[in-house]
Amino acid sequence: MSSDYHQPVMLRQAVELLVTRPEGIYVDCTLGGGGHSAAILQQLNENGRLIGLDADPDAIEAAGRRLAGDTRFRAEQAFSDQLEVVLMGGERMLPIDGVLYDLGISSYQIDQPARGFAFRHDAPLDMRFDKYQKRTAATVLNTYSETDLAQVIRQFGEERHWRAIARDIVAFRNTQELSRNEDLIAIVRNVVGERHLNKSLARVFQALRIEVNRELERLEASLEQAFRSLREGGRLVVISYHSLEDRIVKRFFKEKARDCICPPGLPVCDCDKVQEVRLVIRGSQTPDEAEIAANPRARSARIRAAAKTVPYRKLS
């Protein structure tokens, strides 16, 4: 499974930006099949350590097989917003030297029909990263109010027909529950027609996946935890794939990089704000043409990186 789980995106750039001390402690917050982790381990010496987090038990299994026998590595089934719990439990591993995120969904997950992530497969309306959590896409579709459904589709899918799709979902479930992808596909098709169907389906499925797994709120919480856990000089590296994710990362880095939050026009700064990170690269970088040709799913990726500029404060 591990060899075909997911082709890591921007592998060279991510590892070069992340690893500054070969003896350091690093965290791969989105382990997947272990592609990035394997490359990170190649840059560590015998004293280096790497922890991999993933909510998907399939990812833990795939990475475990790939990296079996490397005593510098351990995997934990956990969402990224459980980072501090993992770091403070058992063998306390703080502060750390770098945290990597490769956000979104893996190729392996998309290509597994039973997971329900892809609209090209008829499958149960599932979309959970953690197969043991209760909330599924069917839960959202069958229990959320029309207003809440509309908000999810609009905010997380940026779908222009959000209101009509939410209305028709509620109308459908008044006669029967939505249980399979084909139920949702039929509703979206009825609203948007065939011409723009695939684009609208991609947006709606993205919106549901984000809601089911609380991806954006987990990302916000995890970034804060990662920052607190870093030593001074430690790196935070994030690969994102759509504007919603990237907006959160960009805003987080921008706020941490500011050295003043005084209102404009004040003659003297009195806010006591200090710069907490230094941007390692200006703005973001994207994959080169060769990588996109070899891996078309990399085309929307962009990477951002920052280094912590303030001392680590011990977590209690």
Keywords, please?
alpha/beta; DNA polymerase, domain 1; Rossmann fold; 316 residues; 7 strands
Can you give me a brief rundown of this structure?
This protein has helices spanning 2-5, 11-18, 35-42, 57-66, 83-88, 107-110, 137-143, 146-157, 162-173, 181-192, 197-213, 215-229, 243-257, 289-294; strands at 25-28, 49-54, 73-77, 96-102, 230-240, 277-279, 302-308. It is α/β, with parallel strands linked by helices. The two termini are 39 Å apart.
Report the sheet-strand fraction: 5-15%
Largest sheet: 7 strands, mixed
Corresponding CATH architecture of the largest domain: 3-Layer(aba) Sandwich
Q: Order of strands in the sheet with the most strands? A: 3-2-1-4-5-7-6
Under CATH, the homologous superfamily of the largest domain reads Vaccinia Virus protein VP39
Category from helices, strands and their pairing: alpha/beta
Task: Give the beta-strand count.
Answer: 7
CATH class identity of the largest domain: Alpha Beta
**Averaging pLDDT over every residue, what do you get?**
93
- Residues in helix, %: 40-55%
In the predicted model, the low-confidence regions spanning at least 5 consecutive residues are none
Number of domains: 2
Order of helices and strands: HHEHEHEHEHHHHHHHEHEHE
CATH fold-level name of the largest domain: Rossmann fold
Whole-angstrom Rg? 21 Å
Instruction: Supply the number of helical segments.
Output: 14
Distance between the termini: 39 Å
Global morphology? globular
